Amino acid sequence: MRAKTILTYDGSFEGFLSCIFNIYEEKLENRVSIKRSDQAQDSFFDNLENVPTNETNASRVWEGLVSKCGTRIGQLVFKAFLSELPTIENTLMVYMQLAFEHPSKVKGNYSHPAVLQVSKIVKSIGREKHRMDAFVRFKLLKDGLYFATVAPDFNVLPLNSKHFKDRYADQRWMIYDVKRGYGIYYNLDTVETVSLSFSETMLNGTDEHLYVATEELQYQELWRSYFNSVTIKSRKNSKLHVQHVPKRYWKYLSEKAPRPKI
């Protein structure tokens, strides 16, 4: 039985592209798969090969893909990668092999399983990105920073940064993904990726009065009162409401949050 090679990487997009580079460099097009290091398991029949992230190799793969197929295909690959779905690396590996060999066949060729799958995933990513744009709610902290926590199904923060930078260009803000342990921070000039340690009480809002500005808490209370006053209970359509604002986003909305201490 011929052994299968499993390339492992650190979970970053650059690490994934480094694996693609190694596949071509070592001529591993057949019987090869890619897995994150934290998801790979030793197997008697498979060969595990760890691929360190190499920025130069990753850039060569990215530039080659864009030059052959265009920026749009490159963005589709990046967005699909952010889904973090099981085996997404192998779907993209097949997709990119097709793109390198037959660039025209990845553009709308939905009869190919990998092309169809990537298209479906990217649509789901787009919906999640737009929902984050709409449902993120900032809270003004006592130090003047506008802060928000999120936990999206997909890793869409890299796609959200431009929207929030353009919309809130005159204030410092941070959006922190509690599910993945990192955030994006805007310092009035650039957007940076940050990884910080927060107490559980800060992330769940238990002690908001200790770090959230008093005027912010008052504004939230005013908004809750307004929202309740304009709600016509006799015309309430819970099913339609959940359809437009799924329950998993309610934790971001001031009108859905419990009344904090002031």
Q: Would you write up a description of this structure?
A:
- It is a single chain.
- By secondary structure, the chain is α/β, with parallel strands linked by helices.
- The chain has 10 helices and 8 strands.
- The protein has helices spanning 13-25, 55-69, 71-81, 88-101, 113-135, 157-167, 200-204, 208-211, 214-230, 238-244; strands at residues 4-9, 32-36, 46-50, 139-140, 146-150, 173-177, 182-186, 191-194.
- The strands form 2 sheets. A 5-stranded mixed beta sheet has the order 4-5-6-7-8. It has a 3-stranded parallel beta sheet with strand order 2-1-3.
- The radius of gyration is 22 Å and the shape is elongated.
Give the helices and strands, then pairings.
Blueprint: E1 4-9, H1 13-25, E2 32-36, E3 46-50, H2 55-69, H3 71-81, H4 88-101, H5 113-135, E4 139-140, E5 146-150, H6 157-167, E6 173-177, E7 182-186, E8 191-194, H7 200-204, H8 208-211, H9 214-230, H10 238-244
Parallel strand pairs: 1-2, 1-3, 5-6
Antiparallel strand pairs: 4-5, 6-7, 7-8
Helix pairs in contact: 1-2, 2-3, 3-5, 4-5, 5-6
